[in-house]
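User: Here's a chain of 337 residues. Predict its fold as tokens.
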Amino acid sequence: MTAGELPEPRKREGLAGHLAAARMLAADFAAGRLHHAWIFAGPRGIGKATLAFRFARYTLAGQAGFLLEEPASAPLHLPADDPVFRRVSSGGHADLRVVEPAGARGEIRVDAIRDAFRFLRLTPGEAAWRVLIVDGADSMNVNAQNAALKLLEEPPPNVLILLVAHRPSLLLATVRSRCRLLRLTPLDRPEFDEVLRDIAPELDDEACARLFAVAGGSPGTALELEQLGGRALKEAVDALLDLLPAIDRQALDTVAAAVTVSREAAHFQAFGRILSASLAERLRTARTDAALLEAEAGVSRLLERSTALSLDRRQVVFEIFGGLARTVAGRGEGVSA
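Assistant: Prediction complete.
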């Protein structure tokens, strides 16, 4: 699987999950009671941006009159051969602006929001509406959020603003208060499998099950893990956990090398997610006890601390398994954080 196989939200025709949310948006639009600003909130990789682009296309196409003709299983649907779909997919629709994090710090700066403000003040060129999608809205810095607040307080007519946020708590309270909050949840197993099979049909039931357990119902996260060798890493982590309190030093060294192969944090973050999922699986079985529950909490704290303080990742891996070994052996020291 290559990075090119990860679908861009603007190009996805289908929608897995979030049907109730889509129906509600379609009904509000058709009834003429659509709020001008929304926050689509939820974990990363569950389809928030996909829904935002789906709603944007629907709005730009003026689909309200077709609401009753839509199948219940496909609200807000616009076919991929529709001219509006094609222009949104290519980034060429005159009435849609998309703002995303940029630069080395991965943030949205005030200039991008001010430029979007000027765009929304223009008369629509193709449709009756102008639409702004801020994907990663929780990456706006304070100045950008203050600029967004002015736009939210005084929106032009026939403007739709969609803020896609993984962590809406990072948005200013005043920004949140001027938007309707739409909380989206991780996909259930059939919905999750539908997305993965559409993108990576080579994945079998066992692979989908393993990825679902680790990714928590987030297809985007699952595909990232797959690209990083997540299934092989989970097998290696599970093998180390099964040996506790003994430690296979060579196997542990291999895992530590795999998760520190790059200076970027992606592999280490994948390790943290996989380890947390594997410990959670054990906490649901009769093989575990209260000591492991406390150790799991210590692992979570240490992973968070290692990210915040840029600790030596290789040393963190060894400390985690050393602490787990002590816990299983009943020596009580556990995982320190």
